[in-house]
Design goal:
heterodimer; A: about 290 residues; alpha/beta; 12 helices; globular; B: about 400 residues; seven-stranded mixed β-sheet; 13 helices; about 20% strand
Chain lengths: ~290, ~400
């Protein structure tokens, strides 16, 4: 191993960058014998300004919307050439995964390629300046869903991407959070060892996009889990096999929301309390559904 | 032409053009095939699927993708791990690939794709013209156009050899006219496995995605580096000019068949009128020339086989002494009222000593039939240009005024 982390330091990510953490944890789970595909996005830009690279594993970036297809081709190529054992991992942001790249990803999962896809979900298009994506949560202010005199920000809840992947019959789907690195590393390892298309959805707070201090990435991530807004679970062969219980540590969503600039308007605008109540209802539903 | 075809009739079979292509692909020993069905490309991918189902393509994976965009994207991945990679498409499918086409060329992945040329929508139309591939001329793909089914079959092996050359490493489109060639049954010699194994060495790229030697593919290049990447792509295209000729000659030496390198010529030596065109219309033009030569019309044909790289010098060498050049285009650059081959030909003549009138005809749009009489009419126009100069530089052919 050339360095302790397969993602070398010196990349151009922000202090407290969620992508760098997610990529590092993913590689810790996957090990050296892998090929990584990244769609266009922050992770790609910050790790590979030619002629530099942060990747100590073979890595390829093609386009924004085709990581699922590129990963399919890599897997097929390795198989045709008789190269066994190398894990194929795609790592992309929520826009590349849930919006523009959804079709290619769906195709890859439907065809059953032996790949692991990691969605690094920071809930908006951060690389282009915090525009709304299908992963942006209810009530978040982004540059294309700004709060305003007649708007409380994003009017729609997050798309349930793990459920979409599960509908493809994936043998392993898990949610992870940057606040629980051991959990994430173990889940990635498990995902890459299971034959077939497996999926990890990582909740990844973005310091610049969400508006919190660069030292708080992990705290914000933990609070999302403790409020129930981001449930941590594993689904194997269609059945939920493991959840991380919150138990007595349950926190109200206000504590999560008030940590972030993107929800600030909910605390200052008239009617904000009702909006916060709606967000609390989302968390309560998660807690009930997964028995958190 | 210096090349005499050495085709033994006893080796010839009557097959569909698409089958000949599929067989040629199989013979080139691909590792990954990825395609999405679209008329009139379908028979090629169906035949390849049958070969797979019968276990006739060893060490190969066939990916049934969910779109043309993914068809080519999957090959980005497979080619990058060192797998010989192939696809086929046409028309809307090729247009959907537009972004990926640039990406493949920029990443120097020598993927080969057969294009069964078809018109583009709207109005939707499934018949042949060249608008689909011509519209992709700036994407960095070598584009070769075939005259008949034997040529598109043979061109498949040539394209792999050209593209995979280490001085080139650029992808190629081998273009065949949809239906006219893809669905026609003609006698031909199927690409021979034993000769092809000698002609086309295994694909061994210098740089691949390999955990034993990790490399980064597809990094971003800022203004300090980007120009040099583009320059190197252009240089590779220029290198391919000679390679296309060399490979055609080498193919002739080994297989005994030759359809031209960058270009081909027919009856050009003493020709006053030279017709330029690409694709299956070449056969019709040759028949017209045979007919008119009997009437002592000094007319010849310049078949353009490579549209990218554009064979400027080869074209100039042929047309420099002509009295008029007629360019037939199965495509239109809207807003220019002209076809691409006409525009390119005129452009390469500027700043040279060659002073020959060039006239252009947009012809066969959306599969409209091109009878010999239409070409004869165009030639009589050209004779008028020789006598009294150009009146209309570029125009639509067989326009039905009553429908306007």
């Amino acid at each position: 191993m050339k360095s302790i982390s397969l993602l070398a330091p010196g990349h151009r990510g922000c202090a407290g960058c969620c992508d760098a953490m997610a990529a590092k944890f993913t590689l810790m789970g996957a090990g050296e014998d892998c090929i990584v595909v990244s769609p266009t996005g922050c992770l790609e830009v910050m790790t590979t300004p030619y002629p530099e690279t942060s990747w100590d594993v073979p890595w390829i970036h093609s386009l924004f919307e085709n990581a699922g297809a590129v990963a399919s081709g890599i897997e097929a190529g390795l198989k045709a050439l008789g190269k066994q054992g190398t894990k194929v991992i795609a790592m992309g942001g929520d826009g590349a995964t849930m919006d523009i790249g959804l079709q290619a990803l769906s195709g890859a999962f439907e065809r059953g390629h032996n790949i692991t896809y990691v969605c690094i979900d920071n809930e908006a298009y951060m690389n282009t300046g915090v525009q709304r994506s299908a992963a942006t949560p209810y009530g978040a202010s982004t540059t294309t869903s700004p709060a305003g005199k007649v708007s409380f920000g994003n009017p729609r809840p997050k798309k349930n991407m793990p459920a979409i992947i599960l509908a493809h019959g994936s043998p392993y789907v898990a949610t992870t959070s940057l606040a629980y690195p051991k959990d994430m590393i173990a889940k990635v390892k498990k995902a890459t060892e299971i034959e077939g298309p497996t999926y990890i959805h990582c909740h990844a707070p973005c310091t610049t996009g969400w508006g919190f201090d660069t030292s708080k990435t992990v705290e914000v991530a933990r609070m999302a889990v403790q409020t129930g807004l981001w449930p941590l679970y594993e689904v194997e062969d269609g059945k939920v096999t493991k959840v991380r219980k919150i138990g007595n540590n349950k926190k109200p969503v206000e504590e999560y929301l008030k940590m972030q600039r993107r929800f600030k308007h909910l605390f200052t605008m008239e009617g904000g309390a009702e909006e916060i109540a709606k967000i609390q209802a989302i968390a309560d539903k998660n807690i009930e559904e997964f028995g958190l | 032409m210096a090349h005499e075809m050495k085709m033994d009739k006893k080796n010839m079979v009557v097959v569909e053009g698409s089958y000949a292509v599929a067989h040629a692909v199989k013979t080139c020993r691909p590792n990954v095939i990825s395609a999405y069905p679209i008329t009139p490309q379908t028979h090629i991918v169906e035949d390849l699927s049958k070969f797979m189902a019968d276990g006739e393509i060893p060490n190969c994976e066939y990916i049934n993708v969910e779109s043309e965009f993914s068809a080519l994207s999957a090959l980005v991945g497979s080619s990058a791990v060192g797998a010989r990679s192939y696809s086929a498409t046409t028309s809307q499918g090729l247009e959907l690939m537009h972004e990926v086409l640039f990406n493949v060329a920029g990443m120097r992945l020598p993927i080969i794709m057969t294009v069964a040329n078809r018109a583009v929508s709207a109005p939707i139309n499934i018949w042949n013209d060249h608008q689909d591939s011509i519209s992709q001329r700036d994407t960095g793909w070598i584009q070769l156009y075939a005259e008949n089914t034997q040529e598109i079959s043979d061109m498949t092996a040539q394209a792999f050899k050209i593209s995979e050359d280490r001085d080139i490493m650029m992808p190629s489109m081998t273009c065949m006219d949809g239906f006219i060639l893809s669905h026609v049954y003609e006698p031909l010699v199927l690409l021979e496995q034993d000769i092809t194994d000698e002609f086309l060495p295994p694909f061994r790229p210098e740089r691949i995605l390999d955990p034993k030697n990790p490399m980064t593919f597809g990094a971003f290049a800022d203004p300090h580096f980007y120009t040099e990447f583009r320059y190197q792509q252009e240089r590779a295209m220029q290198n391919s000019l000679k390679k296309i000729e060399d490979v055609a000659n080498e193919f002739y030496d080994m297989y005994g068949r030759y359809f031209g390198g960058l270009i081909d010529e027919y009856q050009t030596e003493d020709a006053d009128i030279i017709i330029m065109a690409m694709g299956s219309i070449i056969g019709t033009i040759k028949d017209v020339i045979d007919h008119l030569r009997e009437k002592n019309v000094k007319i010849g044909l310049l078949k353009v086989r490579a549209f990218r790289p554009f064979p400027a010098q080869a074209i100039m060498n042929v047309i420099k002494d002509a009295k008029v050049v007629v360019v037939l285009d199965k495509n239109i650059s809207l807003g220019m009222n002209a076809g691409a081959l006409f525009i390119e030909t005129k452009s390469v003549l500027y700043n040279t000593d060659i002073d020959v009138p060039v006239i252009g005809y947009m012809i066969g749009q959306g599969g409209r039939d091109i009878p010999m009489s239409t070409i004869e009419k165009i030639i009589s126009d050209a004779e008028e240009v020789m006598r009294s100069g150009i009146k209309i530089e570029s125009q639509f052919t067989d326009l039905k005024e009553e429908l306007l």
